[in-house]
Design a protein that fits this description.
Helix content is 23%, strand content 40%. The chain is of the alpha+beta class. The protein has an 8-stranded mixed sheet with strand order 2-3-4-1-5-8-7-6. The radius of gyration is 15 Å and the shape is globular. The model has no long low-confidence stretch (mean pLDDT 97).
Length: 134
C-alpha cells in the first residue's frame, strides 16, 4: 500500500518574502495561489502553484519560530518537503509503528485547511517531512 500520493509542496525558508515572490514571478511566471500567516508556527507563507503542487515560501513572523531558527543556523534554502496523504493520522501511525522519530505525536491543523504532521529529519535521511491531508 502506497501511503504518499503526491508531492504537496517544497518549502523554502527566506528572509524577504516579497523578494522571493518577485523572483519566482519574474523568473518563472509563478503566481501566488494562497498566502497566509500561520500564527502557531510563527511564519508567513506564500504558496506558488506549479502543476498540482506548490512552492511554499516561508518567512518567520517571530524570532522563536522553527523557520527563524533554521534561517539562523542554515540560512535560506530548502526547509522541508510536504507529501500528500489520504489519511494523515493513519500515515503518522504507520511511521510511528515502524519506530521512526516524529515531531508531531498527533496530526494538527495546517495552512489552507489541511491536516498535517511532521516527521523528524533523523527518520528520513536528514529531510524534514510534512504529511499533508487536504
Amino acid at each position: 500500500m502506497t501511503v504518499l500520493t503526491e508531492i504537496d509542496h517544497v518549502a523554502i525558508a527566506v528572509h524577504d518574502l516579497e523578494a522571493a515572490i518577485a523572483y519566482y514571478h519574474d523568473t518563472f511566471g509563478c503566481e501566488v495561489a494562497h498566502r497566509e500567516i500561520v500564527e502557531r508556527e510563527g511564519v508567513e507563507e506564500a504558496l506558488l502553484k506549479v502543476a498540482d503542487s506548490y512552492i511554499q515560501l516561508l518567512t518567520p513572523t517571530r524570532d522563536d519560530s522553527p523557520v527563524a531558527k533554521a534561517l539562523a543556523t542554515r540560512g535560506e534554502g530548502l526547509h522541508h518537503i510536504g507529501y500528500r496523504v489520504g489519511d494523515c493520522a493513519a500515515a503518522l501511525a504507520r511511521v510511528k509503528a515502524e519506530g521512526h522519530h516524529v515531531i508531531d505525536e498527533e496530526p494538527r491543523p495546517g495552512s489552507r485547511g489541511t491536516t498535517v504532521a511532521f516527521l523528524h529529519p533523523k527518520a528520513a535521511f536528514g529531510t524534514l517531512i510534512e504529511l499533508v491531508q487536504e
